[in-house]
Amino acid sequence: MVLGSPGMGGASVEELGYSGRLWAALGERDWIRFFPRGRVGGLGHGPSPLRRGFGAVRFATGPIGGHCSYYAPGSESVHNIARIALGRASEVTLAGSAAGGVPGDGACAEVSW
Fold this sequence. Notes:
The strands form 2 sheets. A 3-stranded parallel sheet has the order 1-2-5, with no helix packed on it. Strands 3-4 form a two-stranded antiparallel sheet. Strand 3 and strand 4 form a beta hairpin. The protein starts with a strand and ends in a 28-residue tail after the last helix. The protein has one helix at 76-85, and strands at residues 2-3, 23-25, 38-40, 43-46, 57-58. By secondary structure, it is mainly beta. It has one domain.
């Protein structure tokens, strides 16, 4: 799970060597969204895990305060983090969807595998 990630060390979930479902979130008020993406000469953060084709599943955060608010008590973000940790993926609210769901159930058409 990545929260407010400025970028990853690979261009895709596969390139990271990870075979599970990578969950990712970025709050609308998180300042990290303004960080430059990519790497030059070994410096930088790499591509965003939310980039189309990366392979991460984006979940909703709700109206959190910013980069340090993903664990805010009672937030949609913290509820989704708990659902993921408990293995209740079908109850996770995906970004851009009104209902919970995981890829393959039609809840989030923008996720590419």
